[in-house]
Design brief:
binds NADP nicotinamide-adenine-dinucleotide phosphate; alpha/beta; thioredoxin-disulfide reductase (NADPH) activity; FAD/NAD(P)-binding domain; 6 helices; 28% strand; 24% helix; 2 domains
Length: 307
């Protein structure tokens, strides 16, 4: 029989790395399985993190890198592999990957979340050719140009504010007449001269030959259809949990978040969930790192029951 770890952590975003730090300090024999070295999660693509206590304005990439360095310094062990399935065999959990099968007494799933797509014609075809899901990554390519942001949440508004500094004009296309984003962000947005709100409107198609040229849109209240000439569109319509990328026996809610409370306990003893992938009120870096710490505490309690 191969090596059996105390703990396997799947994912290396803030939740996974926080769990790795706590696990190292608890002297648990731990392996972190990540897709690749740069799988540090959504934080890596965040331009500015403004609400993490003590680190106001830190760049997301720098923050993710610091989390990683901290785990590395404590001797965390990482494996680059894509998980195919998690099999519960009671006292042993098998993590089957595209590389090899790892075994552990406990597993923390910290696989995070990904961008939701609009699902309209042209989105896939023009991805990387004017269709982007990351304003902070791709915004600089649109200097002096006209772009649209689709969505009405915190990310859409933050993206629009960021893009307004770079672009000539930014349309914010939202399907309702009220933004979901925090009030402070809304105030900052509405102060900008080069931002135009396009309310009650959805994108039906993203069109262009080699590059995005225009959006076909329609107003949901009036039914009126129209076109918007843009050089790019930033899609910020929410996130989806990364709970469906491999097979597992963990119960999920109707939106596919892994059902787990603050302690990270799932329906499977010995399998825990931490970070954006679990059911929770607030998906933030600060709550993700908290989840990682809590999950390791739950793992320690669980391991005691095995002895
Ligand atoms: P979100 O809060 O879920 O907002 C998604 C937005 O996209 C909503 O306005 C929604 O419209 C719209 N939308 C969803 N599906 C759509 C579709 N098919 N077509 C058109 N519009 C669609 O997502 P998010 O902005 O990505 O934020 C994710 C999480 O991160 C949130 O919990 C957010 O608070 C958090 N976050 C916080 C901060 C911060 O505190 N500084 C920064 C970034 C993110 P409706 O409003 O009509 O539903």
């Amino acid at each position: 029989m191969g090596h059996i770890y105390d703990l396997i952590i799947i994912g290396s975003g803030p939740a996974g790395l926080s769990a790795a730090i706590y696990a190292q300090r608890a002297k648990l024999d731990t392996l972190v399985v990540e897709k690749n070295y740069a799988s540090g999660g959504q934080v890596l693509n965040t331009y500015e993190v403004d609400n993490y206590p003590g680190l106001k304005g830190i760049n997301g990439f720098d923050m993710g890198t610091k989390f990683r360095e901290h785990a590395d310094e404590l001797g965390a062990v990482f494996a680059e592999a894509e998980v195919r399935s998690l099999v519960d065999e009671g006292a042993v959990k098998k993590v089957i990957t595209d590389q090899e099968t790892y075994e552990a007494k406990a597993v923390i799933i910290a696989t995070g979340a990904r961008h939701r797509k609009l699902g309209v014609p042209g989105e896939e075809e023009l991805s990387g050719m004017g269709v982007s899901y990351c304003a902070t990554c791709d915004g600089a390519f649109f200097r002096g140009k006209t772009v649209a942001v689709a969505g009405g949440g915190d990310v859409a508004v933050e993206d629009a504010i960021f893009l307004a500094r770079i672009c000539k004009k930014v349309y914010v296309i939202h399907r309702r007449d009220e933004l979901r984003a925090a009030n402070i962000l809304q105030q900052n947005l509405f102060e900008l001269d080069n931002v135009e709100m396009v309310w009650d409107t959805v994108v039906d198609e993203i069109a262009g030959e080699q590059q995005v040229e225009k959006l076909k849109i329609h107003n949901k209240k009036t039914g009126e259809a129209g076109e918007l000439a843009v050089d790019g569109i930033f899609i910020a319509v929410g996130i989806l949990p990364n709970s469906d990328e491999f097979e597992h026996p963990v119960e999920m809610d109707e939106s596919k978040y892994l059902i787990a409370g603050e302690e990270g306990l799932t329906n499977i003893p010995g399998v825990f969930a931490a970070g954006d992938v679990r059911t929770k009120m607030l998906r933030q870096i600060v709550t993700a790192v908290s989840d990682g710490a809590n999950a390791v505490t739950s793992v320690q309690k669980y391991l005691l029951t095995l002895k």
